[in-house]
Amino acid sequence: MDEHSLILEELGEHVAKQCNGDVLDHSVVYGELSLLVAAGDIKKVLRVLKTDTACLFHVLIDVCGVDFPERSPRFDVVYNLLSLKRNLRIRVKVAVGEDDQVPSVAAIFPSAGWYEREVWDLYGIFFSDHMDLRRILTDYGFDGHPLRKDFPLTGHVEVRYDDEYRRVVYEPVKLTQEFRNFDFLSPWEGMTPTLPGDEKAKTEEEQEDA
């Protein structure tokens, strides 16, 4: 273990001790310390990370979501923090289900207000006690949460300007043609020397004889 990883490992043990069991697990992954925290304890842990003299993580870089459709609980909420004083980064993860709520941390890190709105908009993860939890990237009438992996690529509605009504209107998605099942192999399955249907093509000798 190199010196940087050793520092992070010691920091993880220190944070776990200061949080009195609120940190479920900690590990050093890709050169960064990663903590696993229960949703109900996220505010207490982030407050320790911000105020403890051995941490001083005063900068909340981002709050993002991760979708694991086949896992239970389905989502991770990830908080990325930076300590300018210690020149260290830390990642805090909270695992939540589709119906679970995560306490808002905007009172601790004001920038979290917009980040949490983005996670709510794109993943549908609800943040309790948020002062203004509404969509931030999609429109007010948008149906669904577009970064969920089960969200259709075409979306549910399409937008166009209507000359008759002189405004933008929303309509259910209408594909220009029905889905057709082609016989070609997908690029992920590799390519064979001949594709289905090539046996119908004439060889060069057959073409010359003709």
Report the CATH architecture.
Answer: 2-Layer Sandwich
Oligomer: single chain
Number of helices: 4
Query: SSE order in H/E notation?
Result: HEEHEEEEHEEEH
As a whole number of angstroms, the C-alpha radius of gyration is: 25 Å
Which sheet architecture does the biggest sheet show? 5 strands, mixed
The proportion of residues in beta strands is 25-35%
What portion of residues is helical?
Answer: 10-25%
Low-confidence stretches: none
Fold-level CATH name = Beta Polymerase, domain 2
Query: What is the mean pLDDT?
Result: 86
Principal-axis shape: extended
CATH superfamily: NADH:ubiquinone oxidoreductase Nqo5 subunit
Distance between the termini: 73 Å
Number of domains: 1
Number of strands: 9
What does this structure look like?
21% of the residues lie in helices and 28% in strands. The chain has a single domain (3-151), classed as NADH:ubiquinone oxidoreductase Nqo5 subunit (Beta Polymerase, domain 2, 2-Layer Sandwich). The mean pLDDT is 86. It has 210 residues and is an alpha/beta fold. The protein contains four helices and nine strands.
